[in-house]
Specification:
Helix content: 40-55%
Number of strands: 5
CATH superfamily of the largest domain: Dihydroxyacetone kinase, domain 2
Structural class: alpha+beta
CATH class of the largest domain: Alpha Beta
CATH topology of the largest domain: Hypothetical Protein Tm841, Chain: A,domain 3
Radius of gyration: 22 Å
Number of helices: 5
Distance between the termini: 41 Å
Strand content: 15-25%
């Protein structure tokens, strides 16, 4: 059977309009294998954690095996450390207030030679019309930075 020739209008439409692509179609064979391995590990995690307490215990064990250290009073950030800063408004805090707080936080860290490698400012986590904000500062290593900079496309959150 002969394939129908596209009209100029159809060609223009294809060139101009957004063509969504499924992330699965962008995977390399290596990425697909890593994804399937991750999914299998996640299923094992869910099978092992039949209660919330078991899930928490397992999550803590996995985090500690990957190098996580629980924060203890007196642990400080040091010059040369890389950080992620998140300012989360609680509903009644304006964006201007959050941005001023963020600017002051970055200046505070910079004065101590602590680099802010990434950040989020806004209404990020759900809080119902409360005053104030939540501030999170996390020390990141190169692996966290690499993972954060990976493109992400989900219904709830997307970034390039």
């Amino acid at each position: 059977m002969e394939e129908k020739q596209k009209t100029p209008g159809e060609l223009r439409r294809e060139a101009l309009l957004y063509q969504p692509k499924n992330g699965y179609d962008r995977l390399t064979a290596e990425d697909e294998a890593a994804m399937k391995s991750y999914c299998e590990d996640y299923k094992k995690f869910l099978d092992a954690g039949k209660t919330e307490r078991e899930c928490v215990d397992r999550a803590v064990a996995l985090a500690e095996a990957a190098g996580f250290r629980e924060y203890k009073r007196g642990m400080d950030l040091k010059a040369g450390d890389k950080t992620f800063v998140m300012i989360n408004g609680c509903g009644a805090t304006t964006m201007m207030e959050m941005l001023v707080l963020f600017k002051d936080t970055v200046e505070f860290l910079k004065a101590r030679d602590i680099e802010v490698v990434s950040s989020m400012v806004g209404e990020i986590l759900t809080v119902q019309e409360a005053g104030g904000f939540q501030m999170n500062i996390a020390k990141w290593d190169e692996e966290f930075i690499r993972l954060w900079n990976t493109p992400c496309h989900t219904p709830a959150y997307s970034k390039e």
